[in-house]
Every structure is written in structure tokens, then in C-alpha cells.
Design goal:
Blueprint (H helix, E strand, L loop, with lengths): L2 E5 L2 E5 L2 H14 L3 E6 L1 H9 L1 H9 L2 E4 L2 H9 L10 H15 L2 E6 L4 H12 L4 E6 L9 H12 L5 E5 L4 H9 L7 E4 L3 H5 L8 H5 L3 H8 L1 H11 L3 H12 L1
Helix pairs in contact: 2-3, 11-12
Length: 250
């Protein structure tokens, strides 16, 4: 068990990466189906607007702090979060953990070719790592039931210990929640764009930018058109909402 911190109604897990991986080991051993959400600021804001997304985050066992503003907000609210765990950090740590414990992994989503490249990259570093499947669905705002069955069957044909879903947030979290008990995988994680980075197909910001909380700026420079609304229209709403939460509580 671990504690959670309330950020605008979203229960953010107060957990270290080490404790998280230990918990995964236990749950895989017990074959407990477990949803893991990785929540940047835009996901928290999406939960405010959409009751379905909020209910998914409240029902998920792990809702990870992916974003310096969320960690800052937790401290400002006097409920500090011990560690920020981004998808970019979790993926390589999880792959190493799976290789060590002989857990199998399945990649679902991302652009065509990304999962296969990631599989090659992992096997170059961990030759015995069990990447048992890759499936890339066509781009759809909402998957048809026919396509959904194809996705589920692809995973269930190999029944991995860990399913990593890259469909962007919160779409990936909604898909996992809707299919959690139809899919034969213990740990089901919405991992976002981490596939491309670990596969070497996209660059991550320099370490000094991580430390300074400026990773968002690096990403914006790379994809200004796609990320302008997220960072300059949606994200600024976060601060006044946190101020309201703090002073309303008082």
C-alpha cells in the first residue's frame, strides 16, 4: 500500500520508483490486474473536465506524478510527493526490472515501426529480455469494436506480465480501464511517448533541463504546433486552480 496526494481531485501516488517496481513484482506473482496511469498536468486538467477520466484515475492503483508542476503543487499544498516518476524514466527502469526477473512485455500502440525498433534496442542491451509482442492499431479517435478485439486478441495470444500502451493520455488510460479485465496482463501501463525516446527515435531534454523543470520547453521546441495549446492555453489554468484548492481548504 502507498499513500496518495489530492491534486485537484486526482489521487497522485506518493511512491518511489524502487517501491513501485517492487509492487509490480508482487502483483505479477499474484496475477493481479493493475492499471498504472502516468499523469502530467494536461491529464489532471482533463480529469477536471471529464468525469470518466477522473473516475479512472480514482480507480487506478497507481497514478504517477509526471510533471514538475504537479510535484510543486503537492509541496505547496503541504502534502509533498516523494518522487516524480515520468514515463521516460519508468520505461527503461521497468525494462531492466523485467529482464532481471524474467517478466514478459508487450508493446501496444505508437507509430508503425516504433515498437519493433524499441524491441531491437532492448535486445541489444538485454538479450534475454522477453518482449513477446508488438501491435500497432490504426489511428482512430475511438477504436471500433472490431479493432478493439484485434488489439485484445494480440495481447491475449501471448499473455504478457506487463502491457505497455502508447496511445497518448488520457486516451491510453481510458482504453486500459475499459479493457483491464478482458486483457491477460497483470501490469497495464499507459506509457505515453516513451517508446520513441528509448528506441532512439526521439531525443529527450538534457539533464539540466530535467532538474530545472524545463523539459516541457524542450518538447515544445521540438513540436510547437502540437503542444502550443497544451502548454500555453491549458497549462496556465493549473496554477489558479491549485491556489483555489489551497485557500479553499483553509
Amino acid at each position: 500500500m502507498h499513500s496518495k496526494v489530492n491534486i485537484l481531485g486526482v489521487p497522485i501516488s506518493n511512491i518511489t520508483n524502487e517501491h513501485l517496481l517492487e509492487s509490480f513484482t508482487e502483483r505479477i506473482g499474484q496475477k493481479q490486474k493493475t492499471q498504472v496511469c502516468i499523469t502530467p498536468v494536461n491529464s489532471v486538467l482533463a480529469a477536471i473536465k471529464d468525469p470518466q477520466v477522473l473516475s479512472i484515475y480514482n480507480a487506478s492503483e497507481y497514478v504517477l506524478c509526471d510533471g514538475t508542476p504537479i510535484k510543486w503543487a503537492a509541496g505547496f499544498l503541504n502534502t509533498p510527493i516523494v518522487e516524480r516518476i515520468t514515463g521516460l524514466d519508468l520505461l527503461p527502469n521497468l525494462v531492466a526490472h523485467c529482464a532481471k526477473h524474467d517478466f514478459s512485455i508487450f508493446f501496444l500502440g505508437a507509430s508503425p515501426g516504433v515498437g519493433e525498433q524499441l524491441k531491437q534496442t532492448i535486445h541489444a542491451q538485454y538479450p534475454n529480455c522477453k518482449v513477446v509482442g508488438v501491435y500497432v492499431p490504426p489511428f482512430m479517435k475511438v477504436f471500433s469494436e472490431e479493432e478493439n478485439i484485434k488489439m485484445i486478441d494480440a495481447v491475449n495470444d501471448v499473455s504478457p506480465d506487463v502491457l505497455l500502451v502508447s496511445l497518448t493520455a488520457p486516451k491510453q488510460d481510458i482504453w486500459i480501464a475499459q479493457n483491464l479485465h478482458r486483457v491477460n496482463a497483470s501490469i497495464q501501463i499507459g506509457i505515453g511517448g516513451a517508446f520513441e525516446v528509448m528506441a532512439g527515435l526521439a531525443k529527450r531534454a538534457p539533464k539540466w533541463m530535467h532538474a530545472a523543470g524545463l523539459e516541457w520547453l524542450y518538447r515544445f521546441i521540438q513540436e510547437p504546433k502540437r503542444l502550443f495549446r497544451r502548454y500555453f492555453i491549458e497549462a496556465p489554468l493549473f496554477i489558479p486552480l491549485i491556489l483555489k484548492q489551497k485557500f479553499k481548504g483553509k
